[in-house]
């Protein structure tokens, strides 16, 4: 966990400049806070996870609007609350309505491989496939699309019919979970 406030502000500053490693660090440090908050609100693991992914997606998309006079965690929780409220409203509407929300897909350059990336590529294929099967299906799918089908973020977003930032967050989360599964298997 990022303890020092100056360290956190430095990470946020790097994230504002588009640094993917900084985004990953923020995701790692605040995922449990947002997920736990939503799990209490929704009492549903899948909804809590989906809302958490959307929260980080929206936060990363709008990181430039973050005001340092507020705590970062508070900002994330506020985004999370709004997404949950929107979800409740959408569920109250007819299930056949669409909101026509077409997002512009942005081209994103990946930074150097993360520790999770390096660990994943070190595994032999058979063991790696066994580890991937331990993940939830939507994480398996995003890993398969990225690493086995070698699709770009934009192509994965199109394939899953999801905003590109959701894909980025899911992939970050999937890589982290897969790395934990792999490390657990080595012990």
TrEMBL record:
CDD domains: Sigma70_r4. GO terms for molecular function: DNA binding; sigma factor activity. Residues 127-178 form the RNA polymerase sigma factor 70 region 4 type domain. It holds the Pfam family Sigma70_r2. Keywords: Sigma factor, Transcription, Transcription regulation. InterPro entries: RNA_pol_sigma-70-like (IPR039425), RNA_pol_sigma-70_dom (IPR014284), RNA_pol_sigma70_r2 (IPR007627), RNA_pol_sigma70_r4_t2 (IPR013249), RNA_pol_sigma_r2 (IPR013325), RNA_pol_sigma_r3/r4-like (IPR013324), WH-like_DNA-bd_sf (IPR036388). Residues 32-93 form the RNA polymerase sigma-70 region domain. GO terms for biological process: DNA-templated transcription initiation. SUPFAM superfamilies: Sigma2 domain of RNA polymerase sigma factors, Sigma3 and sigma4 domains of RNA polymerase sigma factors. Belongs to the sigma-70 factor family. ECF subfamily. PANTHER family: RNA POLYMERASE ECF-TYPE SIGMA FACTO (PTHR43133), RNA POLYMERASE SIGMA FACTOR SIGV (PTHR43133:SF60). This is Sigma-70 family RNA polymerase sigma factor. It comes from Ulvibacterium marinum.
